[in-house]
Design goal:
It contains ten helices and 13 strands. With 374 residues, the chain is an alpha/beta fold. The structure holds beta-D-mannopyranose (BMA).
Amino acid sequence: MKIRTLYFLIFAAACCSCTSLYRDNYTKPNLVDDRPTRSTKKLHRQLHFMSDAGFAIGHQDATSYGIGWKQTEKPKLMRSDVYDIAEDYPAVYGFDIGGIENGSPLNLDSVPFDMMRDLMIQAHKHGGIITISWHADNPVTGDDSWDQTPAVADILNKGEVSEKFDLWLDRVAAFLKTIKYQGKRIPIIFRPYHEMNGSWFWWGDPHVSTEDYVKLWKYTVTRLRDKHRLHNLLYTYSPNKLNPEDYYMKFYPGDDYVDILGIDIYDFNDSTGYVTSIVNDLALVKQLAANRNKLYAFTETGFEKIPDALWFTNRLYPAIKDSGIAWVLFWRNYRKSHHYMPYKGHVAEQDFIRFRDLPQTLFLKDIDPKKQRK
Ligand code: BMA
């Protein structure tokens, strides 16, 4: 029996609760929400057992568009560049709700929110896991997330901006409330205000003080969880790659406000440095997560255009193998000059098939105990 099969028997057993033997491996977490929905608890447990077996493969906007195609209406079948190559779908589906705060019908990358909701429901129905980031506009200037005009202090202290931001959070909540399957809210991994140790977003260093970042995070959680009674969210804290002067916990909102520790690291055509960062940063995140009984994940990555034909199996896999991450999310396939997954005919196509067949990569079928291939 393959070790993978063994793990999934353990996973299935734990899910069925038919034996207590393996459940010992799962210590009940203290979630941010002390009244999580049943499916949210289940998702947390699933992520835990997945991270024992390997890591789920995720893709941002996987089913919204790809190279040379764009989803326009509620589709019957999911389409995905990953599927076109691997004959299996990603296990994790990243979406971004930037734009929802303005009441816009489209997100910042032109995905209609109505369609996004359908795609989330469809992915969930097929066993996929949903994660949401939020590239929110700057509430002071109305410009995009990359407008670095300081805004957090104003959100917290300045009447007019505070009121506006409350409305924005209410719009986020209103949208999240509609993401339901069979009458129940779908569990969602929510990852706001990411890469805050970088300087490119208005919520990032040095445009925000540590104290204000933490206040903004707590305020957001409190509004979504307590005012809007959203009990289907797992909150993920996600700094960017740690430069020597960075401290992972600098902006950490606290164990009571974070469910999953994440990190975003990209390969900017420096695969050696990239691998070193992954190995070092993930080891640190692993330690910090273990001390707190928290899960951890590689919340964004990729090598734009993937010019290295063996990148997946040669660079990435050895670096994340046995790391204990629950998932790895590759960024979006927008166009030929900006994509992070291969597509049919791409130079990394064959390598991606080999990547799929490696023991620890979990695609959609692999996380379904009924269909599991490996
Ligand atoms: C960035 C780029 C942008 C995009 C943003 C939010 O990394 O892909 O083009 O608007 O993410 O998805």
